[in-house]
Amino acid sequence: MFDIISKTEYWDSLDIPNRPPILDQTKYDLKHIQDSWIYKEIGNVKNLKILEVGGGNSRILRCLDKSNEMWNLDEFVGAGLGPKTQIEIEGVKVVKENMGEFSSGLPDDYFDIVFSVSVLEHVPKPEQVVDFFKDGARVMKRNGRMLHAIDVYVWDEPHEILQQRIDVYLRAVAASDLGYKSSPIIDRDLVFKCHFASNSDLGMYGWNKLAPNLKERRRVTQSTSVKMELTKE
């Protein structure tokens, strides 16, 4: 799967009975959409080994059943406005490194589920993205699930910046031992469609205060999220 989270998927998650309130801490932010999609996909799993990449002060791990063995991989250096000090969550093991560093703290062929929320867009170099996916494949069990919600700015016409980034993701997956759970829907010529779930203008206004260097880009794009699901071949 390689697509954009849709309004329907987002709304369906909001209707899940007994949805944990912690997921609504980011109600006016793209992460609310991303958290909702991830929770819809894995919120009811039990007795699995689960790794969140770049989880920081994780909302998702707090929502999962305690029968799962849960890990959080994060350096806690404030990347992407994340926490700068280690966050302890009951029942969650922390490894203070990055995906792509092939850390000995993460065992091979171990995790049933590997996921991230708003992380991959912060991996700057194409070769680092390749290592991210290769390392993710290393730690996953055969037939495990890998899910990523990735921030993207989408224009109303194909744009070189977005084309280049999508190419990076597609090539990195192709260079790993991972495959798509279903055929990719979007490609490098992605443009905004009205069925895409998107960050509010108020949310982007707030982002302008935190990261003003992207204000002009936000003025002419919609802030949406890629949904990517892979498995280990």
Distance between the termini: 14 Å
Overall geometry comes to: globular
Biggest sheet overview: 8 strands, mixed
Q: What structural class do helix, strand and pairing data support?
A: alpha/beta
| Strand coverage percent | 15-25%
| Rg over C-alpha atoms, rounded to the nearest angstrom | 17 Å
Total number of distinct structural domains = 1
Mean pLDDT: 95
CATH fold type: Rossmann fold
Residue windows where pLDDT falls under 50 for at least 5 positions: none
CATH architecture: 3-Layer(aba) Sandwich
State the share of residues found in helices, binned by percent: 25-40%
Describe the structure.
- By secondary structure, this protein is an alpha/beta fold.
- The protein has a single domain, classed as Vaccinia Virus protein VP39 (Rossmann fold, 3-Layer(aba) Sandwich), CATH 3.40.50.
- The protein is 30% helix and 23% strand.
- It has helices spanning 7-14, 30-42, 60-63, 126-139, 160-174, 201-210, 215-219, and strands at residues 2-4, 49-53, 69-73, 92-95, 111-117, 140-154, 178-180, 222-232.
- Strands 1, 2, 3, 4, 5, 6, 7 and 8 form an eight-stranded mixed sheet that branches.
- Helix 1 (7-14) packs across helix 2 (30-42).
- The protein is globular.
- The model has no long low-confidence stretch (mean pLDDT 95).
